[in-house]
Design a protein that fits this description.
Number of helices: 13
Strand order of the largest sheet: 5-4-6-7-3-10-11-12-13
Number of domains: 2
CATH topology of the largest domain: Rossmann fold
Structural class: alpha/beta
CATH class of the largest domain: Alpha Beta
Distance between the termini: 20 Å
Shape: globular
Strand content: 15-25%
Length: about 400
């Protein structure tokens, strides 16, 4: 046991004791001994930072996107792929619903090279568990070999409850049914076990897992309103650092330019890293364009986060709290009608109003202004991963050794 030296303060002495106690714990399952740092992929829009209450999506964590049909869950997942690509990372899409749209995914990514997209189609829950482990093992081994942890990797599973367990398929083949109604328990146990394992394996590496799931609502047991329920057991909710709820608000009819879309509301339904309850509405738009020679049609698709920034800031102003007054005084932001806005802080006056998408882009282009806005909105500033960063420097980890504690046998 550590002895208290004469020149050691009590806090230092207690710290040394705690360090000795934790380092002596014997583990049979490999597990990195540190808490993952708040380092991650940059969120480039005020509206997203306001929603998540931080400026990044941290590595070493699991996130869940859930909602009803037509709430653009998959399209939001594709946008997260775009962010990991901007950090010079890679994504791997696991399709578990047999309705994957590679064309839409590449459109959201704004990616002309289809070779960057190598999805895996799986036939069971067991398969996507194996696929996730295989992807992480390849990239983890590559980083260990190179001695540099500089490959951010995001695995997206769409969706967590889109397939059955292997045992259920076997029961169908043998008995013509799932067998005594036990399949829900079997599938929930598999997903629960997966959540506990995959979060353990990510710690120490720039990895992220995002799982899409469905939303089944039911009346609250007490009080008014609805409770949200995602199939596949409770552990996915407990394991998720954020659960992002998506809700379809309305369709956006096709306009003269050919653009159409949906308006979607986002809410952090559960957050382990910041406050929950903020809501942000964003339009997901798409259109089709023919090539110059007219031989083929290309799909374009995008999230209008610039417009979402303007509408989110206006919602804060209209709440009339301290934040609203501070934002109004800082920006001088006003809305004449749905398509005409102006903002004194970026030099747009009431005589020359512009559309909110362009205005949001102008606001976000002003670095000093956005820093002030983030501060008012209580956005937590964390470390932004830069392309080429060695993730080890945030962990003080030597990738040439095993950063785990373990033992083979009981003493």
């Amino acid at each position: 046991m550590a002895k208290k030296a004469a020149n050691v303060t009590r806090p230092e002495y207690l710290h040394n004791l705690l360090k000795e106690a934790t380092s002596s714990v014997k583990k049979k399952v490999k597990c990195d001994v540190r808490v993952p740092p708040d380092v991650g992929v940059y969120l480039p829009h005020i509206s997203l930072r306001y929603l998540f209450k931080m400026n990044i999506i941290p590595f070493c964590r699991f996130y869940q996107i859930f909602g009803a049909s037509r709430s653009c869950k998959s399209s939001f997942l594709y946008y997260l792929y775009k962010l990991i690509r901007q950090a010079d990372g890679v994504y791997h899409h696991i399709s578990a619903e047999d309705k994957d749209s590679r064309q839409l995914r590449l459109a959201v990514l704004d990616e002309a090279d289809p070779s960057v997209d190598r999805p895996t189609r799986v036939g069971s829950i067991n398969d996507y568990m194996r696929a996730t482990n295989s992807v992480f093992k390849v990239f983890r081994d590559a980083m260990i070999e190179s001695g540099k942890a500089d490959i951010p990797c995001m695995v997206g599973i769409d969706s967590l409850s889109g397939k059955l367990a292997e045992a259920t398929y076997e029961a169908f083949e043998k008995e013509g049914g799932a067998g005594n109604g036990q399949r829900y328990a079997i599938e929930a146990k598999l997903i629960n076990d997966f959540m506990k394992v995959v979060t353990n394996y990510m710690i120490g590496y720039p990895f992220i897992v995002v799982g899409v799931n469905h939303d089944h609502t039911k009346p609250k047991q007490y009080g008014q309103g609805l409770d949200h329920h995602t199939p596949g057991g409770f552990t996915q909710g407990y394991s998720a650092s954020n659960r992002v709820y998506t809700k379809h608000i309305k369709d956006i009819d096709r306009d003269a330019s050919g653009e159409a879309g949906h308006e979607i509301e986002f809410e952090i339904y559960k957050g382990s890293m910041g406050p929950t309850g903020e809501r942000v509405r964003c339009e997901f738009k798409w259109k089709y364009e023919r090539n110059e020679d007219g031989t083929d049609v290309k799909q374009l698709a995008w999230w209008d986060w610039h417009k979402a920034t303007c509408t989110s800031l206006m919602n804060v102003i209209e709440d009339k709290g301290e934040r609203g007054k501070a934002i109004k005084d800082l920006l001088g932001l006003y809305k004449i009608n749905a398509g005409k806005w102006y903002c004194k802080a970026v030099g747009v006056d009431s005589k020359n109003p512009i559309d909110p998408s362009t205005l949001g882009q102008m606001i976000e282009a002003d670095v000093d202004l956005t820093a002030k806005i983030d501060a008012i909105l209580e956005v937590r500033k964390c470390t932004i991963y830069q392309p080429g960063d060695d993730f080890r420097k945030f962990l003080d980890m030597d990738y040439g050794t095993d950063a785990t504690t373990e033992t083979d046998d009981d003493e």
